[in-house]
């Protein structure tokens, strides 16, 4: 293991020179997504956050209700998109030791308020949420469903791709999210709402040459540095810098702003996404195989528990999540793996309400399951660069600390 060798923490795509040479390939990324799901409408955006923002602005035209339910453990940008659209946020805690909503609490929130416009259902870690149970609760109250598929492109629940269960869905094409354009997202909806979404997109999203140029430069930099021999310099180096300054949120790359950029993605980047879209299916097979390897060698240990897919679902596993009995034990495991550059990570360092910069946008509340999850969870990489030797070392460090 080289001194600077670092495995990326999630299973994103490496970009090769041949990808840049394939941009004139017939077809489009929107058509790829529509055929994959399938869906009658897909619109590529500059980020998953912008896709969500356009969805929320569309929802405002569909109903006078102005409150959206989100889980207590989720990317802060979800809440910022809602706040930027001027809507109210209600938070529901997650189940103990899982990404899914606490169903009893969700039922109570839906029942006690007549102002719930939508519920956002995330499929975190590529693990499909319990759509059947959640839909039964939400639909009887006439509430819209927005699926957060940021980490779950091509995941399946009950024989259907996630992103096809609700009225709206969004995906992320950001770095670290599998199929990536460095920054990017996808907005998906039913035929009934496609005209409204397209109109809203045209109103809100304008060309910005500078912003798109910076994204293209970032994409080129990503294609160079996204390999174990160089990843340390764009991942660990800034993380170490912010840790020295005791800024946990920036060290974890989890400091976000409400004024996130909104602009049109260029044809060039969309063409690149189409050029390597064919790599998605074999990549997911590899991720699932690596997840199976971890489960086979780690399941049943008393020192941690693996968060696995629900029966009847097919997760994409961009990473595998472990839950430890205490923060101290989680941190010890993280430190031992991190010192070896083996791709260990903490998906979110806080429950949503525990990010200091999020306090102006969120209601007060105590969400113990999310706080415990943030304190005790650790993710293992399913990245393409992992070698068999790396996997053996990960297993050894976790089973014989």
Account of the 3D structure:
- The protein is α/β, with parallel strands linked by helices and 401 residues long.
- The protein has 15 helices and 13 strands.
- It has helices spanning 17-20, 29-36, 48-62, 76-84, 103-112, 131-139, 191-204, 209-225, 231-244, 248-251, 267-275, 280-298, 327-339, 368-376, 388-399, and strands at residues 41-45, 67-71, 88-92, 116-122, 144-148, 156-157, 160-161, 168-172, 185-189, 305-307, 313-314, 319-323, 377-381.
- It has a seven-stranded mixed β-sheet, sandwiched between helices. Strands 7-6-11 form a three-stranded antiparallel β-sheet, with no helix packed on it.
- Helix 3 crosses helix 4 (76-84) and helix 3 crosses helix 7.
- The longest helix has 19 residues, at 280-298.
- The chain is globular and about 55 Å long.
- The two termini are 18 Å apart.
- The model has no long low-confidence stretch (mean pLDDT 96).
Number of continuous helical runs = 15
Which percent range describes the beta-strand content? 5-15%
**Which spans of ≥5 residues are poorly predicted at pLDDT below 50?**
none
Say how many strands there are: 13
Largest sheet composition: 7 strands, mixed
Distance N to C terminus: 18 Å
The Rg value, from CA coordinates, equals 20 Å
Rough shape?
globular
Classification by helices and strands: alpha/beta
Q: For the largest sheet, list the strands in their spatial order.
A: 1-9-8-5-4-2-3
What percentage of residues falls in helices of 4 or more residues? 40-55%
Mean pLDDT: 96
User: Helices and strands, in N-to-C order?
Assistant: HHEHEHEHEHEEEEEHHHHHHEEEHHEH
């Amino acid at each position: 293991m080289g001194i600077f060798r670092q495995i990326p923490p999630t299973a994103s795509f490496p970009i090769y020179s041949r990808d840049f040479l394939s941009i004139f390939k017939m077809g489009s990324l929107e058509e790829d997504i529509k055929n994959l799901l399938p869906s009658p409408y897909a619109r590529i955006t500059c980020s998953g956050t912008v896709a969500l923002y356009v969805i929320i602005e569309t929802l405002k035209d569909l109903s006078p209700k102005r409150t959206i339910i989100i889980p207590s453990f989720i990317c802060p940008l979800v809440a910022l998109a809602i706040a930027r659209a001027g809507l109210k946020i209600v938070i529901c805690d997650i189940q103990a030791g899982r990404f899914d909503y606490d169903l009893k609490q969700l039922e109570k929130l839906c029942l006690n308020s007549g102002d719930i416009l939508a519920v956002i259902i995330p499929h975190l870690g590529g693990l499909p949420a319990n759509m059947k149970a959640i839909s039964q609760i939400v639909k009887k109250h006439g509430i819209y469903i927005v699926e957060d598929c940021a980490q779950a492109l091509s995941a399946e629940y009950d024989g259907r791709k996630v992103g096809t269960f609700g009225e709206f869905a969004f995906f992320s094409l950001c770095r670290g999210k599998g199929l990536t354009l460095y920054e990017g997202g996808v907005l998906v909806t039913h035929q009934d709402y496609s005209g409204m979404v397209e109109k809203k997109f045209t109103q809100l999203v304008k060309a910005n040459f500078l912003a798109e140029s910076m994204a293209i430069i970032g994409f080129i930099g990503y294609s160079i540095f996204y390999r174990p021999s160089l990843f340390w310099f764009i991942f660990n180096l800034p993380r170490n810098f912010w840790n020295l300054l005791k800024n946990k949120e920036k060290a974890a790359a989890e400091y976000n702003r409400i004024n996130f950029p909104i602009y049109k993605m260029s044809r060039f980047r969309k063409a690149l996404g189409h050029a390597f879209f064919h790599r998605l299916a074999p990549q997911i097979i590899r991720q699932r195989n690596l997840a199976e390897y971890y489960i086979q060698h780690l399941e049943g240990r008393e020192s941690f528990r693996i968060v696995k897919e629900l029966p009847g679902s097919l997760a994409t596993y961009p990473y595998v999540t472990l839950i430890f009995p205490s923060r101290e034990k989680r941190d010890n495991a993280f430190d031992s793996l991190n010192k070896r550059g083996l791709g260990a990570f903490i998906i979110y360092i806080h429950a949503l309400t525990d990010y200091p910069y999020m306090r102006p946008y969120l209601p007060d509340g105590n969400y113990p399951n999310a706080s415990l999850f943030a304190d005790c969870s650790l993710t293992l990489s399913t990245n393409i660069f992992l070698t068999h030797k790396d996997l053996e070392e990960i297993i050894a460090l976790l089973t014989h600390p």
